[in-house]
């Protein structure tokens, strides 16, 4: 069952010439949406890793089981990683809750190339 929700988190990584590039962890239960997000971000020179669940994302970030009781943003290991929610569900209460829980932004699907600059500004502004 697809919930049509996704998430992107950016982590600065050493790039060519010592400058930082953004490494985006895209989480979405839809393989089609994961491929779309990956294609859009790679076209804008992001390094992209995709997974299909929040559990996989937490394990990849190395916080798996230790954070199962609360919000992912409560973990000191995750607090500095900017999170942008990408969803097809345009429900004001859900959007507000995501932002209150620590998301940097909320974008509606389908993600378009024109959304990438907005995504970039949220990621870069939060990782400085």
TrEMBL record:
Record domain Response regulatory: where:
23-124
Q: What SMART domains does this protein's entry cite?
A: REC (SM00448)
Keyword Transmembrane listed? The answer is no
GO process terms (BP): cytokinin-activated signaling pathway; phosphorelay signal transduction system
Report the SUPFAM superfamilies cross-referenced here: CheY-like
Entry keywords, A to Z:
Two-component regulatory system
- Top-level taxon of origin: Eukaryota
- Family matches, as PANTHER family: TWO-COMPONENT RESPONSE REGULATOR, TYPE-A RESPONSE REGULATOR
> What's the protein name?
Response regulatory domain-containing protein
The taxonomy runs:
Eukaryota, Viridiplantae, Streptophyta, Embryophyta, Tracheophyta
């Amino acid at each position: 069952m697809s919930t049509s929700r996704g998430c992107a988190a950016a982590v600065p990584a050493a790039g060519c010439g010592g400058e930082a590039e953004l490494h985006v962890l895209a989480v979405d239960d839809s393989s089609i949406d994961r491929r779309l997000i990956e294609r859009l971000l790679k076209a804008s020179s992001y390094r992209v890793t995709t997974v299909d669940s929040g559990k996989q994302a937490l394990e990849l970030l190395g916080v798996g089981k230790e954070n199962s009781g609360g919000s992912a943003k409560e973990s000191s290991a995750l607090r500095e990683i900017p999170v942008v929610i990408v969803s097809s569900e345009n429900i004001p209460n859900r959007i507000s809750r995501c932002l209150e829980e620590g998301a940097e932004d909320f974008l509606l699907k389908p993600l378009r190339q024109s959304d990438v600059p907005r995504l970039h500004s949220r990621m870069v502004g939060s990782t400085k």
